[in-house]
Amino acid sequence: MVDPAPAPAAVRGGAPRSRRARGDRRAGAALDARPLRRADGDRPAHRLELADLIDLRDPYTHGHSQRVAALAERLARRLRLEYAQVELIRDAARVHDIGKIGTNDLVLLKPGPLTDEEQREMRRHAEIGHRLLRRLPEFWEGAELVLSHHERHDGAGYPRGLKGDELPVEVSVISVADTYDAMTTDRPYRKGLAWDAVRAELVRQRGKQWRERAVDSFIEMIDEERRNARIERPQPTPAPVQPAA
Questions:
Q1: What is the pTM of this model?
Q2: CA 55 to CA 64: how far, in whole Å?
Q3: In the chain, N or C terminus with fewer CB closer than 10 Å?
Q4: How far apart are CA 167 and CA 211, in angstroms?
Q5: How many domains does the chain have?
Q6: Residue 103: which CATH number?
Q7: Mean pLDDT over all residues of the chain?
């Protein structure tokens, strides 16, 4: 199982109610503290402010939300999804981890593998994010994708264990982008993986963690972008040959 936060098999249940309540209060307070201004004309600014909350809190994933949103948007366009779907994917990807503002710092910032109990608390971020975003009318649709971004095509994901056609293609698009960025980014306890290793893992999880179509298109996209980057990279100018003395 590929998981942006590597973990043992899904554990049913959750943290004690008092811990859940503390996490929910922390998340709600953070939301209420955000200025509800608008940017770019009538376009809400919530998504940028909310996404920045978690990225600024965790230095090891700084920029993660922006990168996942950009990857997911490019993949959605490559899949030729409708414009409304592309926008929904981009906006949901931008705030997919917002529920982590309700996660205890000792768990969120732990520089190493998590215990089973810590995993249970970390996994609650999908549900916390869903409840938080449902309070904002412009995020109602995106909230469902945030809730489901750790579900798997084979039903082994969380929090609801949905599978197959129970999950829209948008979930696979966000999830594969999320996993790619997590695997290629340096963490305190490991270096980011090279593309060849990531590519092999994506192929291995094809049809298990994600829809085959999403994985195939994502691999093609990254391969193409890597080829283009090599072509566009300027070649070094050879050093002039010095005449023999």
A1: 0.77
A2: 7
A3: C
A4: 10
A5: 1
A6: 1.10.3210.10
A7: 82
Task: Kindly tell me if the per-residue pLDDT of 236 is higher than 60.
Answer: no
User: Crossing angle of helices 64-78/46-57, nearest 10°?
Assistant: 130
CB 231 within 8 A of CB 244: no
Least confident range from 28-32, 122-126, 214-218: namely: 28-32
HSE of 204, CA atoms in CB hemisphere, 13 A: 8
Range of the domain at 45: 17-230
In a domain, 6, yes or no: no
